[in-house]
Design goal:
The complex is a heterodimer of chains A (373) and B (531). Helices cover 40% and strands 15% of the residues of chain A. Chain A is of the alpha/beta class. Chain A folds into 2 domains: 16-131 and 280-335, D-Maltodextrin-Binding Protein, domain 2 (3-Layer(aba) Sandwich), CATH 3.40.190.10; 134-279 and 352-372, 3-Layer(aba) Sandwich (D-Maltodextrin-Binding Protein, domain 2). In chain A, the strands form 3 sheets. In chain A, strands 1, 2, 3, 6, 10 and 11 form a 6-stranded mixed β-sheet that branches. Chain B is globular, with a radius of gyration of 24 Å. Chain B contains 24 helices and no strands. Chain B has 2 domains: 1-89 and 130-294, no CATH class; 320-531, MetI-like fold (Orthogonal Bundle), CATH 1.10.3720.10. In chain B, 75% of the residues lie in helices and 0% in strands. The two termini of chain B are 26 Å apart. Chain B has 531 residues and is mostly helical. Classes of the chains: A alpha/beta (373), B mainly alpha (531). The interface between A and B is large, with 56 and 52 residues.
Chain lengths: 373, 531
Amino acid sequence: MKIITLIIFLFLTNNASSIEVNFHAWGGSNNINDYIGNLREDLVDYGIDLKHTKISDTESSVNLILSESINKKSKVDLIWINGENFQKLKLNNLLYGPINDLNNLKFINLEDETLINDFGIPTENYEIPWGRSQFVFLYDKELLESPPKDIFELKKFIIMNPGRFTYPKLPNFHGTTFLKQILYELGHYNLMTNKFNLENDDHKNAIKELLNFVNEINPYLWSKGKRYPKNNMEMMKMLANREIFISLSFNPNEASAQIINGNLRENTGTFIFNNGTIANTHYLAIPKYSNNIEGSLIVINELLNPKYQALKMNPHIWGDPTVLDLKKLNSDQLSLFKFDYQNNNLDNNVKKMLEPHISWTEVIEKYWIENFN
Amino acid sequence: MKTLINSILILIIVTILCVILNFISKIFFIETLFEIPNLFYQYKNSIKLTFILNTSVILLTIILGFLISIYFFVNKKDTILKYFIPYPHISFAIGILFFFSTSGLLNRFLNFYNKSEIPLIDYMSNNEYSILYIISLTMRELPFFILVSIMILNKINFLFLQKHSENLKLKKFNFYLSVIFPLWIKRMLLPILIIISFSYSNYEYSFILGTQFPELLNQELVNIWKNEFHYNTHNYNVLSLFITICFIFTYLFIYLIFQINRYLSIHNVYRKLNINLILIGKYLYLFLIFIFVSNFIVLLINSLSTNWFFPNIIPSGFTINNFLEIFDNNLNLIINSIIISIFLSILSIIIFLSYFQLKIKLTSNYLEYVLFISVLLILIIPQNIFLINLNIIFNYLPIDSELFFYLFSLIIFIFPYTYFMLKEKFSSELYKSLYLQKENLKLSNYKFLRNIIYPIYKDTIIFITLIGFSVCYYQFLQSIFIGSGNQRLFNNEVMVLFSGESAQLSSAAAIINLLPCLVLFKYFKFNNVKV
């Protein structure tokens, strides 16, 4: 009996904590897990026990927040979020905010349209920018000497190299973004800034054109388009082993970060189309019914600290572009942002395209699932 | 015929129970009925594949299980097989993927002829009716099945039957197929139902081998739970209904196959055949060893490598940093998982020891019947359906502790093993007389357990603790359904790491994951197991 009591005691003490902030963030990447782990150690000084709940998709956490809101509770204190997940929580009035009082918000340019609009929805400080993303293609330089400059060259590559290209199964956001990028390349960029309207012939034709394009490349995809990878991480492993020759990412510094960790070959390069690619931002948000709003605010403030933003941008650690306005930093802070970039990444000055109106995401996913699932 | 009726009855009880649980969870049954045709069309491919793949797995498991068991039974050897029983499903599936996938070790060996820097894409794992799924799930189910099968064979009077069949001048092939097999299969009803249930609740193989074939019903069910359940309960209900129907059809199909075999045996169709089944069993056993050992080796090499790109047979560099990184990030979780598993395993034994003490005082057998049916249903109902319904019920209870529910959802899957294994020993007259002596001597429960029960039943208690530990340690669906992702064991961490970019780290995690149970099972004596 004494042993059992001791085991219970050890178990309980092991789980005892100060102020626990339960942070729901994707846990598939060890770099990201390490980054959050380091932050956790620093937050102990603030009396905060940051618990990283490693999720494999954000949607399930959003559903958890929605279901718990009936009882005005939330097991989630802080969440890594953007796009339709943000929209879902904002529309249901389940986010704490607006968050205006954080000290480190002064480093962010809150007039930057790419930061204060999330897939066309004004953030209104119900979510705080955490990192920037741009849709990029990774490729094996030994197998592909000159990467495609537009979607038509990519189509040619796919047909010439059957089975060596694929994209993640929708509704995975990398898969959806690839299809949005096709629509942009087919000349519908301006059209897609407006809400999708089924009555509008131009909108209907755009979708029709997209489906025709996908139909044409489908037989030449990996596994003849019968199966698709679950996410871009699976594609990364396939690219490393040359099962496919091109992969997708939302991190322009992905190649160097993955090469440093031994996950990609050293001859991996990054390219985008001549017209540019879709860029967006990811954010941090606090559910309205969180028990630890104060603690979550401290965590967000720390994550906006130039020290942590620089660590996030460091390709040896994460390699994600910063949301801070570098002009607002002093010279000491600025020196933190100098890295030895490898020539595997893109320049920071490449063309960026805004996300289309969020309604297009739902329509693209719906039609793709109906036709290709 | 009696066996068929019994088994259909069990399955009907399962279905009724699912329906009752669904009603408890506020099902809009009419809406559910309307959804059936739509969802059938939507999941047609998944339903077809789930039925074909799982039925193939079960049929193969039974046939291979029988052949390996008789080889094993005749040779009476305590071998490497015991280490395969606690081999975690998630680690096994990751190992299978790295061995058989398009850029896996097998294709690298085959590439000796091709000498290409690029892997062939027309490879077996891309087949829609994935041979990879069938091989991996069959091989994973086999060790447990063989363990139970040998226990059953031990109960058959083998020597007596052998002597009579020699007198009748039956060939060995006919002896095994027409005499031993029917007796064996009749007693294997419960294990067969258990492996059907295992197959129909497996999520990890669909998830890990995911790109290799379309999503099966089990994975679709989990996806619905994670993404739509709170708005769309009828989709979940229809899917669980599809799974239950496939489950029943699989069982009936298997039953039909063995009835045909029985008919052929009775009509002497096999009389002219003379195949050495023991030899086939031996080669199958060697193949089983090959699969498990190669699985372990591929995980070990991957976890010790800096990187290991196609077509290299040997990695470009070796490091132990992957292990150090996993330990560094997850030591607390590993320790927690071990403590939780030991605690729940011992708690389960204490609960059932208390029950068997209580049972001596009881005059009626009703409690025993209820308990028996309950533990049987826990074993037979596919785990994902069971856990979703359990979660719905928990939501109506006024207890605000996720940890409590999580621990309960773990221990409930240890109960059946503890119950069945303790029942044999603690329903005996010996135990009754020991207990009466305890009452006369006015010994405390603790002293009775420490000084009398433990020394006498030491082997049984250690064995049950081992089984309970490994059952608990390798649970992961609870985290998704009950623990909201917050409560989890190290096994869940391996799954999440697998969805990341590093094959090396997920392999290191898979190796660390299998160590605790492999170490414990070193002390497990295969031939001593009698239930």
